[in-house]
Target: SCO1431 family membrane protein
Amino acid sequence: MTAHSATATRTRTGGPEDHGPKILEHVAGWALVAVIAMLVTQLGLL
Model:
């Protein structure tokens, strides 16, 4: 078995993928930032 055939038979294990809805990641990231900012403000940590 060569190195090429050994890597070709591997299955993906659920790591990050390069293709996907990037806009969804950006919206989720900014929503998280907003939630953390509101939490910090409400708790008076700033």
